[in-house]
């Protein structure tokens, strides 16, 4: 028997009510339609904008050298991988990139994944199980949490960057295996995790340290090698993941660690084993991108200048720019309506900065997530700072009258 139209309408009515409530709460997410390459100046929804939305931290997403590399590689390898990695999908371009990445981040071996989400759920699910325990920062990215839930291991979360709380949890744990999972650079706060302290706890309590360096790779450390290089940390206990669609400008992710760990993941990481890899042409393009990152000290120096200029030119009384020395500069507004109002005000000025609201960030910490790129100019950043300064008084006054 088929369901009646009334039954179907009843089935969907709960979804519609939730969407209506999300809109009323200022939490409804919406997509923009991009009609240009990803860059500092874009066309979205048929309008030209100065964009501070992208994670393209080095400005490589529209780099002519990478476009040429992709065009050539597509001619050499086609446009699809055609099969899973363990059948015939592992192309020489994939293999070469894995070796290049491992050497670049000074790890014994590396493994490519289609994206960071698949990497995190694959690694955590492969290494941890029912009798194990995972210890995670409360502000970790959602995919680290998803990996922990799917692993069926005991899942313990500690307050943001709270080393003392973490040690208490580790000391009390009787799990067979332990893993500390943390973002290296937090995507909504821009701060760097106390990884040296976490590594010391791993040594003390015999645990893995798994770090997600999505927002540090390419930007921090010697030649952009990432957060581990920035903090001068090395240990066989460390497993790192970094994405390749942010500072690297293309797409995908990789995991690096000891050879035995990578060999094990090839056998046991379901998101690797049971998926078709990204097209080989992307890996060839990424090989060129890693070379640009390695030689990109001038880009990183310019990015640091832009960070300093933004901080020096914001003059705020009610809103707070969180302390961050990375390309992620979070401007905490507080309420959802106020954050949306600021984002809409800037949009009307031709400046695009996303409003980030709960549950992505904690309640009452709605914010604008300002993403700086080496592609931005000094004038771009000054324009943004001046517009935010002007907006603060206008929006605060208008909301007080509501």
The largest sheet has its strands arranged as 3-9-8-7-6-4-5
Tally the helices: 15
| Run of helices and strands | HEEHHHEHEHEHEHEHEEHHHHEEHEEEH
Assembly context of the chains: single chain
Strand content: 15-25%
- How would you sum up the major sheet? 7 strands, mixed
Q: Rg, please?
A: 22 Å
- Secondary structure tally: strands: 14
CATH class of the largest domain: Alpha Beta
CATH topology of the largest domain: Aspartate Aminotransferase, domain 2
- Overall average residue pLDDT: 95
Helix content: 40-55%
What does this protein structure show overall?
The protein is of the alpha/beta class. The chain has 2 domains: 30-58 and 296-400, Aspartate Aminotransferase, domain 1, CATH 3.90.1150; 73-294, Type I PLP-dependent aspartate aminotransferase-like (Major domain) (Aspartate Aminotransferase, domain 2), CATH 3.40.640. 45% of the residues lie in helices and 16% in strands. The protein has helices at 5-24, 64-77, 85-89, 92-104, 116-127, 142-151, 163-172, 195-205, 227-231, 259-268, 270-273, 280-294, 297-313, 336-348, 378-400, and strands at 41-44, 47-51, 109-113, 133-137, 154-158, 178-183, 207-212, 238-243, 253-257, 320-321, 328-334, 351-352, 355-356, 366-371. It has a 7-stranded mixed beta sheet with strand order 3-9-8-7-6-4-5, sandwiched between helices. Strands 10-11-14-13 form a 4-stranded antiparallel beta sheet, with helices on one face. The chain has a 3-stranded mixed beta sheet with strand order 1-2-12, with helices on one face. It starts with a helix and ends with a helix.
């Amino acid at each position: 028997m088929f369901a009646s139209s009334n039954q179907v309408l009843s089935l969907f009515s709960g979804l519609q009510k939730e969407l209506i409530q999300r809109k009323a709460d200022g939490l409804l997410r919406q997509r923009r339609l991009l009609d240009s390459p990803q860059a500092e100046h874009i066309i979205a929804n048929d309008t030209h904008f100065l964009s501070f939305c992208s994670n393209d931290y080095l400005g490589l997403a529209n780099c002519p050298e990478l476009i040429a590399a992709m065009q050539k590689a597509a001619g050499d390898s086609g446009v699809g991988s055609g099969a899973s990695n363990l059948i015939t999908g592992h192309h020489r371009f994939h293999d070469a990139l894995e070796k290049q990445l491992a050497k670049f981040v000074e790890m014994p071996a590396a493994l490519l994944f289609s994206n960071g989400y698949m990497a995190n759920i694959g690694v955590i699910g492969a290494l941890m199980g029912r009798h194990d325990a995972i210890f995670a920062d409360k502000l970790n990215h959602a995919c680290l949490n998803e990996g922990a839930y799917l692993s069926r291991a005991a899942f313990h979360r500690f307050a943001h960057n709270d080393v003392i709380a973490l040690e208490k949890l580790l000391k009390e744990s009787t799990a067979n295996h332990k893993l500390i999972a943390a973002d290296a650079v937090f995507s909504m706060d821009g701060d760097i995790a106390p990884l040296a302290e976490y590594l010391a706890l791993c040594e003390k309590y015999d645990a893995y340290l798994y770090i997600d360096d999505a927002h540090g790779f390419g930007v921090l450390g010697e030649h952009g090698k990432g957060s581990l290089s920035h903090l001068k940390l090395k240990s066989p206990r460390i497993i790192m993941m970094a994405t390749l669609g942010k500072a690297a400008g293309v797409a995908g992710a990789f995991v690096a660690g000891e050879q035995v760990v990578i060999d094990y993941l090839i056998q046991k990481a379901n998101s690797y084993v049971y998926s078709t890899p990204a097209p080989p042409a992307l890996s060839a393009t990424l090989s060129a991108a890693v070379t640009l990152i390695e030689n990109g000290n001038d880009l990183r120096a310019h990015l640091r200048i832009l960070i300093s200029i933004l901080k020096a030119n914001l003059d705020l009384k009610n809103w707070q720019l969180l302390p961050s020395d990375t390309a992620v500069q979070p401007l905490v507004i507080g309420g959802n309506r106020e954050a949306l109002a600021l984002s809409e005000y800037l949009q009307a000025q031709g400046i695009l900065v996303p409003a980030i609201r709960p549950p992505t960030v904690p309640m009452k910490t709605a914010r604008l997530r300002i993403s700086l790129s080496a592609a931005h100019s000094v004038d771009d950043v000054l324009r943004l700072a001046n517009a935010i300064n002007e907006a603060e008084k206008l929006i605060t006054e208008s909301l007080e009258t509501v």
